[in-house]
Structure formats: C-alpha cells, structure tokens
Amino acid sequence: MTERVVIAGAGLAGCLLATLLGRRGAEVTVYERRPDPRVAGAERGRSINLAVSARGLAALEQVGLKKQALERALPMHGRMVHPVGGGAPNFQPYSADRERAINSIGRAELNAALLDAAESTPGVTLRFSRRVTGVEDGRILLDGEPGERARVVLACDGAYSAVRGSLDGIGCDQDFLEHGYKELTVPPRADGGFALDPDALHIWPRGTLMMIALPNLDRSFTCTLFWPKGDFTALDGPRKVRAHFEAHYPDVAGLMPDLEGDFARNPVGSLVTVRARPWVQDAGGTLVALVGDAAHAIVPFFGQGANCAFEDCIEIDRCLDGTGGRWDRALALYQERRRPNTDAIAGMALDNFVEMRDRVSSPLFRARQAAQHALERRLAGRYMSRYELVSFTTVPYAEIPARIRRQNLILGAAASAAALAAGTALRAAVRAARGGGRPAR
Ligand SMILES: Cc1cc2nc3c(=O)[nH]c(=O)nc-3n(C[C@H](O)[C@H](O)[C@H](O)COP(=O)(O)OP(=O)(O)OC[C@H]3O[C@@H](n4cnc5c(N)ncnc54)[C@H](O)[C@@H]3O)c2cc1C
Q1: Are residues 214 and 159 in the same domain?
Q2: Among 114, 165, 326, 431, which is most buried by a count of CB atoms within 10 Å?
C-alpha cells in the first residue's frame, strides 16, 4: 500500500486509525485544527472523562495501548443511584460478574497517548493548527486553500465534520436533543481523598434534570448535568444555582465549593445523533470516507461513542486485510459492515437516557436487574442483559436487540410454562385434598 492517505482530525478515531494505517505501510498525514493538545493543553467544552469498556479496550489492545489505558483508569463496577430527597445512595452492579467494570479515563490523557502512538509510527505525520475544509480536484482544502494531493481522505473530524459538510453527495440528519450538558467539579476532600465512592458511576436520576459523576485520577469527580437547555438559563444567578442544588442534589451540593463559578463559566454543550448517508464518496478521484462521530455521533447515555468510533477503525483495518489493500472495496465493505451496528447503538443510547434518568430509581427496575444477574449466573453465556452485551462483549451492536427479544420470548415462554405447571400441580393438590383425586362435582 503506497497510496497517500489524509486523515482529518487527530481526535480519538483519527489517531488510532493513523497508527493502524501507518503500521500497514501507508503514508499518512493527519491534519488537526487545534494546536497540539500535549503542548497547548486540552480544549475546553468537551467531556473531561470517558467510560471506556470492552470494545474500546479491544481496539486499544491492537496498538499496544490497553495496559497503559487501564493503568490510568478508574474502574467503575456499577451505578450508585442517589435518590430524590437525599436518602442513602444504592449501588447497582453492572454485571453478575462482580469483576467486570467500565473504566473512567481522562479524555485528554487518552488522546495524548494515541497522539504519541501515531507520531511514533513510521509513515505517519501529524500537522496541527490546520483545518481541513473540503476536497477538490484530487486535493484536500486547508482553510479553503488547495493542500496536498490525496487518493484517500478519512474524515475523523467529529460530529460537526467540515469534510462531510463540503460534499454535496453526502446527506446528513442531525437530531438534537432538547437537553444540553454542562460539567461541574467535585474536588477531592480536604484530606486528599475522594468525596464520593470512586468505584461507581454516580447518577442523580431527577426525571428531566439528571446528573451523573465519574471519578478522575486526581481524586476529583466530573459531574455532568443533562438538562433541557432552558433549565440552565432559568438559573440566572449564583443564589438560584445554590438553592436549586441544595433542593435537588442535597448530598452533593455541599461537596462543590465552586458550584456557582463552575455553573456560570462552563458552557452548555449540545447532544446530537448524526446519521450520515452514504459514508463513502468518490470526490473527483479522491475516495472520502466518514469515520467515528463524523459518520454517526450518538448521545452519550450508553458511554459508547468513543468505543464505537474505535471499532470503526479496527473494521477499516480488517477490510483492508480482506480486500488485499484495495481502498475502494475496503471502504465499501466498511460501510456495509458498520452501518447496521452504528444505527443499533444510536437507538440503544437514546433508550438508555430514559433508563438512567427515570427507571434506575424504581424498586421494580432493581428487582428486574437482580433477576437478570441471577439468570446470567445460572445460564452463563446463554443469557446476557443488554448492558452486559453492549459494555462487556464485542458482540456486534446490530445483533443485540434481536438477541434480547429472543431471550425475552424464551423467558416469557418458560415463565408461562412454569406458571401452567404450578397451576396444574395446585389443582391436583386441591383435588387430592377434597377427596382422593377425583374431580369435585
Ligand atoms: C458529554 C459527552 C460524554 C461522552 N462520554 C462518552 C463515554 O463515556 N464513552 C464513550 O465511549 N464516548 C463518550 N462520548 C462520545 C465521544 O466523545 C465521541 O464519540 C468520540 O470523541 C468520537 O471520536 P472522534 O475521533 O470520532 O471525534 P472527536 O473526538 O470529536 O475528534 C475529532 C477531532 O477532529 C478535530 N477536527 C474537527 N474539525 C476539524 C477539521 N475541519 N480539520 C481538522 N481537524 C478537525 C477536532 O479538533 C478533534 O480533535 C461522550 C460525548 C459527550 C459529548
């Protein structure tokens, strides 16, 4: 493979892909619109930490970064649900296997590790503070000016991809939630310890005003508010902010000394589901493909966006293997294989919002989850909850909804059969009690 490849965006997907392609012998240039974040510091306004699970770790392992990532991660073995009214929080394990955890990892640190890996791969060149704005006549455009010639351009430039936007042949639906997000900080306690249990992803399910918190290595927590955008603006002053938190999140309000400052300073981000069609286009002799959020940004409620973007990169590498390095065939195959999966996780991520903000606090939900874990233990490998399949396996996302429906049908049938058998046994016992087993007249 000697064709020149340009990657737009040195985020999570762009760096992983550059490393994989460099290792195949490709000449890859990665253009990133920001300055080098390892020198200039991380950009504000993105989530500070990410939950990385089985899929992301499997991808990182391919470039030798899994061990390093886990060493700098904090495992979260379950959700800690903080009830309305401030009672004692309850811990809900994510898996029947108590060893299994999702991992809280700093975005900036993960990005830096991936940048280092890409930079040290022969054939890969990183160029910072250069914005790719399109593709024309076999060349990329950098801030509208013709740049280098490229046979292949891989758009890893995020949910609001400029490369995607520059191509007439690519349609794109962007569904924005009414909710936005804002990050706040719970600093370490005065004695340097964590102010909340670091082994959990904390949730304050408050209907439409949900908050979550993930631990950081410096013993702080990053809290994220997921609120309708109008509710952020309604709290238009420090007193209102403090009063709101004391009323609705009383167990954490006292742990946030700079709550009012954070609330005023930190931006409100948007939550969008992106569905681009098609992902691959021949733009005047240059093959362009969308990867990661540029193709399929999803809402963050299953913690899968980055995991899913990493899987895209692995799939492209696999498709190049399977097609003898023929980019046209490999990219067509990549799109065919990945799209059903990304459509599936987009839907599951939206569903999980309702689960996190409403259902996790219900006793019925907890009983159902305990029953699911009991089944997982009894029917190891044959019964798995949706959470287990999404977060702790690499089963293709597209197979999960059908598998869950099948499991539910079998369980429903088994429960009916058990109820029927119990009814028959009960009737027989009643008959026996009434007189020797003959039907009562
Ligand atoms: C609040 C929130 C929480 C999240 N939590 C999780 C989580 O817990 N787990 C998880 O797996 N995912 C999570 N995600 C999703 C995750 O952040 C994304 O799916 C992931 O970052 C996608 O990676 P990417 O490389 O495709 O895009 P990005 O990470 O957005 O990277 C795009 C890169 O391209 C650069 N760029 C943009 N435009 C240009 C241009 N024109 N030219 C050159 N460079 C450009 C950007 O500066 C950036 O470096 C979360 C998202 C949000 C918003």
Answers
A1: no
A2: 114
8 lines ligand 1 (CB under 6 A): yes
Instruction: Establish whether residue 222 lines the binding site of ligand 1, counting it when its CB lies within 6 angstroms of any ligand atom.
Output: no
Q: Which of 130, 225, 293, 345 to mutate to test the pocket of ligand 1 (most atoms within 8 A of CB)?
A: 293
Two tokens at 271? 């939550």
Of 238, 270, 302, at which residue does a domain stop? 270
The residue written with tokens 């503070």 in the block is: 129
Render pLDDT for 235-275 as a digit per residue (tens, 0 to 9).
999 999 999 999 999 999 999 999 999 999 999 999 999 99
Q: Quick: pLDDT tens for 313-350.
A: 999 999 999 999 999 999 999 999 999 999 999 999 99
Task: Fill in the amino acid letter for 261.
Answer: G
Closest protein CA for atom 29 of ligand 1: 11
> What is the separation, in whole angstroms, between the first and last Cα of the chain?
86
Q: Does the beta carbon of 30 sit less than 6 angstroms from any atom of ligand 1?
A: no
Which residues, in sequence order, are CB contacts of 231 under 8 Å at separation 6+?
208, 209
440: in domain: no
260 and 366 together in one domain: no
Is residue 220 domain-shared with residue 343, that is, in the same domain? no
**Which of 237, 270, 303 is the endpoint of a domain?**
270
> In a 10 Å sphere around its CB, with 0-12 CB exposed, 13-18 middle and 19+ buried, how is residue 309 labelled?
buried
The token pair at 258 is 């700079």
- The total number of structural domains in the chain stands at 3
9 Cα: distance to centroid of ligand 1 (angstroms): 9
Check: pTM over 0.70? Answer yes or no. yes
- The residue segments making up the domain with residue 228 are 177-270
Q: Tell me, yes or no, whether 278 and 206 share the same domain.
A: no
Q: Pairing mode, if any, of strands 78-81 and 90-93?
A: antiparallel
Residue 243: in which H helix or E strand, if any? helix 238-248
Q: Are residues 257 and 279 in the same domain?
A: no
Backbone angles phi, psi at 136, to 5 degrees: -150, 135
